[in-house]
Amino acid sequence: MLKKNTNNACNIRYGDIGKLSIKIAIIIILLAIMVLLFIIYESSVLGSPDTVGENIVGKSGNKTIIIVLVDNNKYEHELETAWGISICIEKGSKAILFDTGPSPEVLIHNSMKTGVNLSSTSIVVLSHEHGDHIGGISALDSYAHKITVYVPHGFPIRIIEQLRGKGYNVVIVNNTIEIMKNVYILKPLYGPPWEQALILNTSKGLVIITGCSHPGILNIVVEAIREFNKTPYIVIGGFHLIGSPLQQVEEIADQLVRLRVHKIYPLHCSGNRIRRYLAEKYPQYYGDGGVGLVIELSN
User: What is the 8-class DSSP label of residue 182?
Assistant: First the structure.
């Protein structure tokens, strides 16, 4: 009898464990379903850039690829950070470089790591004259004869002459111009200094790429909306908000959301205040990023 009672106790314990295991498995499955549904909701209802991730640089085909080659914010660990910004836009077989960062060495290193071939660059857009945006252009000197460099009016003549002396074709921008199909330079606005932004006109809205936003990020976005009569889809780049009062930062972030910007990527001189505020209050609109960020868009 004692032996029989012991076996029954063991059977009860094993049965309880089995039931507990089933319950845990059901909970895990339910959690997995909830995560999957959330991901589907984010991509289909809220919408997002078609792909944001790694290892998609190369043949862009019928897509436009945006990759942050230089930034002072860490994102991909193998890449070097530096105070400045450089963003590559691959469209078909052509590449546009928006700003070049402060150093040719950093630009070359990060280009090699990300698989960006600088020799395919046909256009360089320099947002403004500051060294953390133009200092890396000598990385392209070997290909200068086939590169057109667009600078805003008011850009120092001395630097323009240096670039032309190296073989670059330099164009001074006074008004909004189309430099490639559905790719525009927004007319320069005054900060100081004079500064221009790059605009990609996509089926989902405007992609607005900024250097430092010395004229004010809101002024740039509003001017782009006025020029193209289209809502902004993505705003990415430097917002010039480091050291700005928290209230001002919050008001600017709120206004960007009210302007119906779908995704906001504060880089370079934007500062951590706006990054934290967007991440906490508007997580669906905040785009985390830094050097190595890749965004893929359908043409």
Answer: T
